[in-house]
Amino acid sequence: MNGNGRRILGSLLAGGTESVLHGICNRTSSPREGTILVAPSLEAGLYDAIVAARAVVCGSGGLTGHMQSLCRGRGIPVLRVDEADLADLVGEVTLYLESASIVVGPKPSAESETGSTALDDLGSACAVIADLRDITAINASGPNAGRVESFFIREEFLCLALGLSPLDAMVGGPADITAYGQAIGGRLCGFVEALLPGQRLILRMLDLRSDHAADVTEIARVAVEPNPEMGLHGARWLLGSVAYRHALHAVLSTLRKHLGDEADRVGLSVPFVSDETEFSQLRTHLDLPDGVPLSAFIETPSAVHATSAMCAVGVSELFVGIKDLVQFYLAADRGNHLVADSYRTRHPAVLDGVRRVVESARAAGTPVRVFSLASDLGHYLKNLPTPDGYMMCTAELQQMLLQPHSRT
């Protein structure tokens, strides 16, 4: 079928800094700089092709899947279309982000870019990053770069960039475990060296769901779970892994060896923790040195209601993970486009949960930061108590740093 000139409508899963993009389709898993990657779904195995792409078009997925979040952080637009339309996406295509549509064929006449966001009232900002280039991009954003107090990265993204298989390393023996920790620590050292004075880095410890783990694992046995989102990952998995404890100590030792006291600029955060009991058990299990702070992500309703108790047992800082919180409050899978209309980041129940976390943390004197999409920030600023700061993906936050006088 010849699709030239046809306009295909879709749904925008992640935006970018341009409103119109033109490029050649890449239908392979090989990285091709500046192309439009076309794939049925976004999987970890496509990492190299994704980060090389100018934009991505997929046939499935939701607003806040992990790879969609990676794209948002890098400013790579993602457009979802019906799977039946993917076959027409060959050769040259033009993406119109404002109308969430694609025209197949040679480049049409140029169209102007529009849109801006705001920095006002953002607080002590935290940038959600995918790699070192995101830190350098933020810190090259002019005089407002200092407004970004911290950078947050998932350990899984470090693994992807380094070509590491964490579960294989954990079953490979002491030498493999140590080598894994040293590789992660070494990568973090480079990140710290790129920080401005007063900035810090937060490592969200390994949170590898079984379905994602299966894509990057060759040796270790990966359980097949009927519902991986609610399965053995996050704090639950960390509690059961002695090997990860040794790997984490190798990370900390590498940081201390190469950075000295500057190693204190790297903080650790617990992913997907249920309550204060689980947090305390994990702190003990990890056998962290005295004085090493440990923060936590609030991503489930149970953690919302345990906020005060978690502060009481010594959590150093709280990060509200809106993306997971929405799906668990509303029983709407964030990666399932069939329930996209039910996945609402401004739902009153979700905002009530966030409000509870912020108020409880502030009453306890515990710093708290809330993740926000740029499109939601104005709504959150008006309808939530003020947290210590907001977390945002790199590309969206960089736009605010470069356009400080606009309002959302």
UniProtKB/TrEMBL annotation:
Residues 196-370 form the PEP-utilising enzyme C-terminal domain. Pfam families: PEP-utilizers (PF00391), PEP-utilizers_C (PF02896). Its cofactor is Mg(2+). Residues 32-79 form the PEP-utilising enzyme mobile domain. It comes from the Bacteria. Keywords: Kinase, Magnesium, Metal-binding, Transferase. InterPro entries: PEP-util_enz_mobile_dom, PEP-utilizing_PTS_enzyme, PEP_util_C, Phosphohistidine_dom_sf, Pyrv/PenolPyrv_kinase-like_dom, Pyrv_kinase-like_dom_sf. Belongs to the PEP-utilizing enzyme family. This is PEP-utilizing protein.
